[in-house]
Design brief:
This protein is mainly α. It has a single domain (about 5-140), classed as Nucleotidyltransferases  domain 2 (Four Helix Bundle (Hemerythrin (Met), subunit A)). Helices cover about 80% and strands about 0% of the residues. The chain has 5 helices and no strands. It has helices spanning about 5-25, 35-60, 70-80, 85-100, 105-140. Helix 1 packs antiparallel against helix 2, helix 3 packs antiparallel against helix 4 and helix 4 packs across helix 5. The longest helix is centred in the last third of the chain and has 38 residues, at about 105-140. It is globular, with a radius of gyration of 16 Å.
Length: about 140
């Protein structure tokens, strides 16, 4: 197994940790300012690891594309890895807006979208990789 073959698996380990931490944070209903800041940070990390894991996987599969966040998501959609690229692209736009939100107002406007639209799209990517890893482990035991 070469370095490229394991790159997406290594990145997925970090994605999984970030995903679970974001999920935990989003389970809280009422957030104070400090908690909102934590959710924003977890959202940014998770989304970053999400698209990077997709990029590493697509590169391993031999896909040719410009490895930017939006192009990676579009390629993942074209390759059938995800069902709705636009939600993840919207998530990238929200992430970019939140990184310049010093008052907290943008988070309040985006919170529902993150919880009910973007997070489920991230979870779809998470589930894809979880199944892919489980299949690979099953194959190892059957070989």
């Amino acid at each position: 197994m070469d370095r490229q073959d394991t790159r997406w698996k290594q990145r997925f380990q970090n994605f999984e940790k970030a995903f679970n931490r974001l999920k935990e944070a989003l389970e809280e209903e009422e957030l104070n300012e400090l908690e909102r800041n934590g959710v924003v940070q977890r959202f940014e990390f998770t989304l970053e690891l999400c698209w990077n894991t997709l990029k590493d996987f697509l590169e391993e599969e031999g896909a040719q594309f410009k490895p930017t966040p939006k192009e990676t998501i579009r390629q993942a959609y074209k390759s059938g890895l995800i069902k709705n690229a636009q939600l993840l692209i919207d998530g990238l736009d929200i992430r970019n807006e939140l990184s310049h939100d010093y008052s907290g107002e943008k988070f309040e406007k985006s919170e529902d979208e993150i919880r009910n639209r973007i997070f489920p799209a991230i979870e779809e990517v998470y589930q894809f990789f979880l199944k892919k890893l489980n299949r690979n482990q099953t194959q190892l035991f059957n070989d």
